Structure formats: structure tokens, C-alpha cells
Amino acid sequence: MTNKLFNSLEEAENFLKDQFGDGESFDVGIKHLFVKDLPVLCAYISGLVDGEALTQLLSSMLPDEEVDIEDEQEYFEAYFNFHGRSEETERKAYLLAILSGQVTFITKSGYCYVAELRNYPGRSPEEPDNEKVIRGSRDGFTEGISQNTALIRRRIRNSNLRFELHKISKIGQTDVALAFMKDIANDEMLDKLRQRLGQINHDGLTMADKSLEEWLFKQKFHPVPFVRYTERPDIAAAHLLEGHVAILVDTSPSVILVPATVFHLLQHAEEYRQAPAVGTFVRFMRYFGTIMGLLLLPLWYLFATNESLLPETLSFLGAQEKSHVPILLQVLIADIGIEFLRMAAIHTPSPLSTAMGLVAGVIIGQIAIDVGLFSAEVVLYTAVAAILTFIIPSYELSISIKLFRLVLLIMTGIWGADGLFIGLFILFTYLCSLRPLQAPYLWPLIPFFPNAMLRVLVRFPMTADALRPYVVASKQRKRS
């Protein structure tokens, strides 16, 4: 193999003009320069390189004396002594290097060299909105994959931390990195992920990590998330040390963590930023809130329409005021209406969000009660159910809970208590059947692992001797 790709500078220039067009793209730089006395053809994408660093590098190589060029390769390597220099041996790889933001040099005899001067546009690390903590770091992942790997390496200073780079899709050529601890992560799981990455035959991953999830796990129409997303480097680092694999996708500020169970999706960094007793209390509250977020509306509707099921002491749970609109229709309209409000809040500009909240909460809610469209109890319990879904750290799981709640509510409305229990049985069976990456979705509840289940329920002190989760099949289960 050799890095000689062309026979002359003219052939290289014609190749580039054939690929990018002659002056058709203003951001493509194709320039004749000198490395000392050696003429070269430099090609780059202006918006993806560090222009200041490139200028300083070239300025330091201005010809200052007459030098005989005997061996062109040795001459270039001697005077272009740049730490981020590499070679390309194929024209396809040479073209991809330009498109990836690297600066390429073709010497007069056609030898190819690549300089790592990438500087992708993006924002600085900041705390993610959906994973905030009271105490803890305030940095978060950004859209740049190189910056994201650095944020993880800052927390895990170990040579066994690997970032395995893959180019995914035929046209988009998206950078995807598998991050894992070589001495901890399961090799079989890594091979399976590599195989699935190699099987992706698509033109591009425009939706970044979400597109990749659907390709890797064949999600199809499954409503529940098969992976855990995080924008916090500390969470990603903690999972890597447990034996999980992190998948970083360029242009995405979220990192995919696999394998993931439903209990991983319910964890939050705040539990580990507080004392173990407080963290356990917060965890119990979150589990209880998640279950009630699923069952509150179906149970309230069942009791409101079957007062015989309520003991006298709980008679206040039923509907106190009669309405011309059936209760089931009220609950469905109110629950779906909250989804409309959530969607409107996402698309409403920040200066108008306060006004939108006043319109939704005061005008629509109060007037709907006054005109008899909703009873006050329906508004109350629907609002409580909505708040309970907001406590779920995983946005994808919270949407799934809302969808399951609507299905249970409809089944309860049609078949009563039988419909509710049949719906819960079907839901439980469905969750038990899921095994993304061969990891049971309800582990350690199903199959039942007592010690692991205890650690899921209780936030043990860091000093407690813990094993890595069995579900990740780590090479080393002991952590200390």
C-alpha cells in the first residue's frame, strides 16, 4: 500500500473539480501552496476546519532558503512535522477526509497527506435541560463527537477505555463511535453491535441517534425505548464502568447506553448526589409515581363509574357533579388535551410561553369546568396523572406510559374492572417478552434476581461492595 494517489498536481486538481465542481461550492477550498519549496495542492471544507491554526501552520513553512528536493516524501515529512498528520492510500478515503473536515495535501508527485485540523461548528458544554441536578457537574454532551469523547475521558483516565469509530450510511457517512472498557465489556455483545452496524445499508442517519437505534434494535412499532439516552458525561462514565457500551453519534448531544432495562430508564443522577437514605426515598417516590402515572386515571374512572367498589371512607373519590358529557369522554379529551398543550409548549417561542400557560391553565381549564364540559374531578386527576409522568427521567418512557394509560383507560371504559386487569396482564406479558440485545427488559424482576432487585430498590452506599450487573455479562463482576 502507498499513499501515492495521483501522478501529478494537475490530475489531483481535475479529480477534485470533477467531484466538487469547478467553483460550484463556495465553501470548498482547492488551493496551490508551498511546504517550504515543495509545491502542494491543498483541499478542505472552509466551515469545518480551524482556519487560524491552518494559517499559522502554513505561515511557519514559508520558503526561507534554497533546498534541493531529492526525496519528496522525506522532504514533506521533515518540513511538515505536524502532530496530526496521517496518510491516505485510497481516493475514496481521501475524499471522505476532506468531507469530514480534515485538510489534505497532494505533493507534486501525487503523494497524499492529511492534517487533523477539524473545528466543527457547535456550542460549548452546558447542563442538559432534561437531566438537571441540584448538586453536581454542569457540563453536558454537545453535537461534536470529538468533544464528547473528551468529556468521557476526563472522567475515566484509563488506557482500556476504547472509542471504536465506524462510518455509517452510504451518502451521509456519519461518524459513530462504540465506547467501552476493553477489560470489562462483554465481547459477544460488542461483536453483535459491530455486526449490526455493518449491516446498516441506508443513505444517511439524518435523525442521528434515534435513526441508529431503530436500525440496531429493529424497533419497528414497539412503543417503549430499547436504549437509555443521556446527555450527562458522568452518567455515561458510570455506565461504562459497570460494563455497558455507549454509542456516540456525531451531530447528536445524546449518548446511547446499552443494554438497558426499564429500571435503568427510571434512574437519575440526583439519587447518587444525595445521602443513600435520601436517594432511596427519591427512588421509591419515582417508582411509585411511575406506577400511579399509569394507573391513576383508569382506577379513578373505574371507581367513579362503580361506586359500589368504593368503601364509605373513600366515597369522595367519585365524581361529585353530574355532567352531560360521559366521564370516559371527559377523561380522554382532558388527557389528550394535555398532550396538545405539551406540543404547543415545545413550539411556542419563549417570550410567548407565559401567555400560552395562562390561556391553557386559566381560560381553557376554568371555562371548561364552568360550561360543564369537564367536571372539577376530571381536571384534577388528569393534571395529577400528567405531573406523575413528568417525574420519569426518560422522556421516551414517559410518552410510552401515556400511551399505555390511554389504552388501559379505553379497555376499562369498555369492559370495566375485567378490561383493566386484562390490559395490565397483556402489558406485563408484553414487557416480559422484550429482550433487546438479549437483555430481559424487566430484569432483575423478571427473571427474578433477589440481590440485584434489592439494589434496584435501595440506593446502597458507594462503599458497599457491589457487583457489576449480571445483565451486562461483564468479564469482571467485582468492582473493588
From TrEMBL:
Key words, A-Z: Membrane, Transmembrane, Transmembrane helix
Note whether Electron transport occurs among the keywords.
no
Chief location bin: membrane
What are the subcellular locations of this protein? Cell membrane; Membrane
| Family annotation (Pfam families) | GerA (PF03323)
The membrane topology of this protein is:
Multi-pass membrane protein
TM helices/strands, residue ranges: 284-303, 353-372, 378-395, 407-429, 441-458
- The source's domain of life comes to Bacteria
Family (UniProt): Belongs to the GerABKA family.
What is the recorded name of this protein?
Stage V sporulation protein AF
| Originating species | Lysinibacillus parviboronicapiens
Q: What is the lineage of its organism?
A: Bacteria, Bacillati, Bacillota, Bacilli, Bacillales
